[in-house]
Amino acid sequence: MALKVDWHGVYPAVPTQFHDDLSLDIPNTKKHVQDLLNEGIHGLVMLGTIGENCSLHMEEKMEVLKATVEVAKGKVPILTGVAEYTTQGACETVVAAKEVGVDGIMLLPALVYKSDEREIMAHYRTVATSTDLPIMCYNNRPVYGVDMSPENFKELADVANIVCIKEASGDVRIITDLINTLGDRFIFFAGLDDCTLESVLLGCEGWVSGLVDAFPRENRMLWDYASTGQWEKALEVYRWYMPMLHFDSHPKLVQYIKLTCAEMGYGTELTRPPRLPLVGEERERILSIVRQCAATRPGAEAEV
Question: Are 257 and 286 in contact (CB under 8 A)?
């Protein structure tokens, strides 16, 4: 029997803010979370890729999560990314995250080592048995070099607290394969910004979004139109949004999205090395896209 959760809608993958010396900036991280809550997001994903999970120590991760719990006050579900090099490390992170009050886990395969199918399945089962928190499986074959097929997820259907699949391969055909194979056993989330509208049309009930961090109102507009079947209006917003949504599928998505956020008044562009600030033509190109989109943004919230 699967664990029941009410996960749906837009879940920002929230950036972690840093001071000029690259120490954690908890006050500004909390401010960004509050700004997103004020705009009506449905949940939060902390310490994902955009949250620079792998650039933080365990103590820093827990500090970010504890601060987020304090701000959210139970209003929306809080998920934390769990992206560790070992299965034991993932289990330890999950246990610590529950202690500070998160509501769920977005679980990645073990990083660096490219596991085979048997190893991936063992990783997910072992981490799931270390907690009673609900788990979103993050499947992103192009980035992590490993893939979980619909048949793999079918084998995991007996694990009650694996409840959701975040599909971020960029191949929207997989969503139909997943639904055909798995039915309604799992909740499906879109995981790549520039495939979102197609993903919702094909059955995704939620969206882990990056660009929402900079454009929460317009992002909500797109979601509201799409989730209520107002496809022509949704498509108009999607076409406006797409030049920036492409940032999410670039290797420098963290720098691109944090620069976009800073340009729109949300936090700073500071990232921890090896990620460095954008410079020269690349920086000007990204800013030009953002400024053009900001100047032509939709003028009113969705009415649904």
Answer: no
